[in-house]
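Structure ticket #2291
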Amino acid sequence: MRAPIGMTIMMMVLFGYAVNTEVDQIAAAVFDQSKTKESREYIDKFESTGYFVTKYSVSSEEELTKLLDSGKAKAGVIIPSNFARDLKQNKSANPLLIIDGTDPTLARTALSSGVLISNHYSQDMREKYLRLRGLSDMRAPGVNLNTKVWYNPNMDNNMFTIPGLVGLILQNITVMLTAFAMVREKERGTIEQLIVTPIKSIELILAKLIPYIIIGYGAFLLALFICRFWFKVEILGNLFLLLLLGTLFVVCSLGIGMLISTFAGNQSQAMQFTMIIILPSVLLSGFVFPLEAVPGWIRPISFLIPLSYFMRIDRGIILKGIGMNYLWQDTLALILFLVIILTAAIKRFKKSLD
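Resolution: structure written out below.
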C-alpha cells in the first residue's frame, strides 16, 4: 500500500514542477568592448526582463566561445567598441547575440527574447533622440541585433532529442537488466548455490556484471549506429572518446541496477525501485526539459542523477565536438558515482538467505 502512495506523490511532484517549457534565467556571457554608459544600459535591458542572467563578463571572444562550448553559458552578447559612438552619430549599432542551439526550446526562447529586448531598447533610444533633438524617425539612431545559433543552427529537435535518447535508453536497459539479477536468483532458489561457494561478495558482484557489461555496451553501439545512420545525426567530436566514456556510463548504470537488486526482495519491488530511478532521470537530467526551466529548489536533484552528466558528455561530443578539456568534470562525477554505487552494492550483498 505504501509503495503506490509514495509513487503517486513522487510522480505528481516531479511532473507538476519539472514539466515546464517556459525558460528564463538563461546564463549569458557578455563581451563588452565599448564599456560605456550606453553599452551598460543595453546589457541591463537583457537582465531586467528575467530571461537572461549575466553570469560572465569576458575580455575576449575566445573566452566567450569556451563558455559556450562548456555549456556554462547558453548565450553570448558581443558589443562592438563603436557601439556608443555609432549611437551618438545617429548610426545604427550592431551588437551580436550568439546562442547555444543544442537545446532548441532554450535557443528559441533566447533568440526571440533577445531580439525583442533589443527592439525595445532601440525604440526607447529612438524616442529619446526624437524628443531631445527633434530628429526625424529616419535619422534617429537604433540597434540592429545580429544573431547566430551555434551547434544546431536550424534548431532541429531531432539533433537535441536523438543524442539524449542514446543515454536514456542505455540507462534504462542496463538498470533493468541488473535490477532483476539477484532477485531472480532469490526467487528461483539458485542463490543457495552461490551461498555455499567460497567466493567473496565483490567477486560475485563483478562476475554478475561482466556479461551485462557486454550486453549493455552492445546496446550502446546499436543506439549510436541508429543515431548516426538512421537519424543522420553526425558525430562531430572524437568517436573513441565517446565510446570510452560510454563504457564508464554503462558500468555505472549496471551498478545502479545491481544495487537495486540487493534491496529488492522480489521482482515487483525491483520494478518499483527501478521506476524511482527512471522517472527522475527522464525529467531532471535535461533530456526533455531544460534545467533552466526547472524550479531552483528541485534542480539540485539533477546533480544526484548520473544520466545528467552523461547527457552533457553525449551531446557535447556529438553536437559540439568538444573534448576532454571540457568534459573532465562530468567524467570525474561519473567515476565518483561508479565507485560509490559499486561499493554500496558490495556492502549490501550478504551471502545469506536473509
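Closing remark: Strands lie at 26-32, 52-57, 75-79, 92-93, 96-100, 142-143, 146-150.
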